[in-house]
Structure prediction request, 530 residues.
Amino acid sequence: MDENAGWLKPKKSFKLKKSASRKSDVTRKEIGGFSSDRLSVTLPVKDSSSQAKRRNPFSVHNEEADKKRQRLSENFFLSSDSGFIQSSDTQDSGCGSSQSQDQFEESLRSKTRDPHLAASKPELDLPLDWSLKSRLTFTSKQSWPWREHISTAEAASSVTGGVRCLDIAKGNHCLDTSPSAQFHASCLYWQHPSLPGLPLYPRYGQSSMSKVERLNLSPEMHRFLVSEWINSLQSVYQLVKARQCPYFYVCSSSFTCLFRAAGIGGSQQILALLTPTTSGVRAALKREDVEFTQPLLPKVNENCDDDTDKGAQEKGATSTEILESLGIEADSLPGFSSSSSKSTAQSGVNLDGKTSSLVFVEGVECQSLLNYLLNAKLSQGPGGVPPTILAPVAFPGAVLKSLRVKEHSLASKTGGTKSYQIDLQGPVMPHTLQTLANLSVNHCPASNLRTHTQEDTVSFSLLSLPKDSVAPSVFASAGLNDCGLPEPMLKKFCKVRSGPSDVTVLREVNFRHGEFELAGDEDEDVHLNK
Prediction:
């Protein structure tokens, strides 16, 4: 038996592989030609829209709900409750999808810009009070939408809105429009100087032994402090003169001065008010050739004072002539030569420290008054601090500060509803009071406001401009568009006071559904004791 009968030699195995590959190529060609010639058939495509959607066996079929859902989807592509887009029936048939998208984006921006406020409400017609306040207290039975502590986004938006003089509730911006952001933005103000740990407001009535006046500053440091104060006062005055700042206050230990831009209150020119004044301050203004008037001085007293001055002068002249006829000099008698001057100055002493001692300066004379403030030694002692400058807008050297906010909840002793209280401490200027009052009415219609008025500034609110100094409000507000006040409030600041009914010092106000009632009126002609 042959041993190699079941084995193939290598050459034969190679021949078998080659023949097998040739057969497979031929078969593939035949199949390809056959498929290309005879199998070129187009398969039918199933129409998914023609077939009904397979029903979910676990769902509950409700024909009425399906019809209602279909009807809503046809008429509305967004719910009308959201306030974005109204019914599609009101749109024109020729409008494309681009117009619908634009309307949706605009509605979305308007809705996300102010999600907390409903329809815009009219401004509260609260009388304008020019006196400074040191404390405000808001009380309501309803909880306030703002808090003492706010989030990071609200704090950032409030600072941005306050610095840029933006109305957060309106305009195209990406700031937080929550009531807390609006509230804290309204509490901002600008002050110079600002030293940590020193209360620089109120300044009126501070004695030479107060903490501010006993500040131990080196002569060089005090000189730098006064130099910076002079630059700041000149800068903020230029802003008011250019009508880019509505007003500012200068608070010293002996008086308070208010500068107002032309157009504010209907005035034709820039004006300044100084109160309270003494006979020494008025004499210093006369020496500096500052022309001023005293509009709050009663005419009866003024006539009496003139008669007293004339009588004193005539009496002094007659006595001098009698002594000279006898050969006696008036200066040789002690105390006789100054009797006439004492009698003349006696009439002005009664006005010192009263609201009627207000000094009114207008036009170019305001520059002379500014020079007096710059050159006068208004700080007591070599280490004293210059007067405090307060303004609603930024100026060189100013520091951005905020009112101190504290919230309380007061429980009723009889078991009734508790009330909520917000306390604000710091210098409250007129625009701040107006803005906070509007916010309070918009979010808590029934509330109460109590103010702590700085009594030496009450006369600012008692002044009504003479008719020859008043300009129409339309021309007054034309050049104040960049002063930092919103348009509705600017109109109120440019309004001309028609009479005694508009002269009001706000001490307590009760708000009820958009209306207000003033309370706590007192006699304003009070003596200001230091």
About this structure: The chain has a mean pLDDT of 75. The two ends are 144 Å apart (CA to CA). The longest strand covers residues 419-428.
